[in-house]
Amino acid sequence: MLPKYPGAPPRDLSKPLEELKILVDKKLDGQRLDLALAAVLTWRSRASIHRLIDGGYVQLAGRRIAPATRVHTGETIVVEVPPNPTANPDPGAGVDFPILYEDQWLVAVDKPPGLAVHPSGRRLDGTLIQALHRRYRNPDDAAHDVVPRLLHRIDVETSGVVAVGLDEQFHHLVARQFEDRVVQKTYLAVVHGKPAAAEGVVDLPIVPDKASAVRLKLTTSRDGSGLPAVTAYRVVRSNADYALVELRPKTGRTHQIRVHMAALGCPLVGDKLYGGDESIFLHQLSGTLDADHRERLVLARQALHSHSLTFHHPYLGRELRLEAPLPADLAALVP
Hints:
Low-confidence stretches: none
Distance between the termini: 38 Å
Helix content: 10-25%
Order of helices and strands: EHHEEEEEHEEHEEEEEEHHHEEH
């Protein structure tokens, strides 16, 4: 997500980005302008950032500066985003999802697989948060302008419950519950094979997989090093090929469920990175997945579903459980 400039109103994500103000912080302090912009505008190449600077679209203290200029804490970089003739003028249009729950403070949706929750990388439109801004924002009428704010995120391939705050104070109160790990989360996954025990707890730290050619890949540690990670699981049902497993992560590490199930010898169906042959992930990145790869994956997406969230609703004064039913593509594997 793009950084919010202090004091600026929430950006309307249902509209294309026209101007971006960046307050230089300690992380960017002393960096060259082009490198600082590359750290923020992650979807742009270095060459396109240089074109922005050379074209006069970037200013510091109201003046044009060279790419090699060092920026310092407290300075403001202003980037005028030139119109893109191929850009989507309505980034939230055409995005469809069922609404599971809605009140004046909260909306919960059943996110379909393949839908990103927010813009990032090269995916700049057609995301869940942009569609929600399209539904709720009314910047021209402050009394009726509602700013949706994500309370948590799930991967683009993962389906299921996503909760979004519609009130700033509500968002703050519930987001703190997520940070304090008091929100109860359950996931459903379809895995290859079946865990040896019908239920149990995987308590294995997670570390970078230094043996992998994929930089972002993680693995479990048996020597106690790495970040603590705990996942409780229960086999719901199984057949000769697959098992439907309910998972309750006690920690929130990156790729935690996928890494822990792979550690049990039961990787998620459709998992391109942890399914046993990471070359499939590399083929996906390069756009060279073929029929054999797809047949081995079984599903085009990882078989992971955000099934439920339970937390205290601060304004209703009671526990609220949000639940999304098991989607048809996963149910068909373990009827």
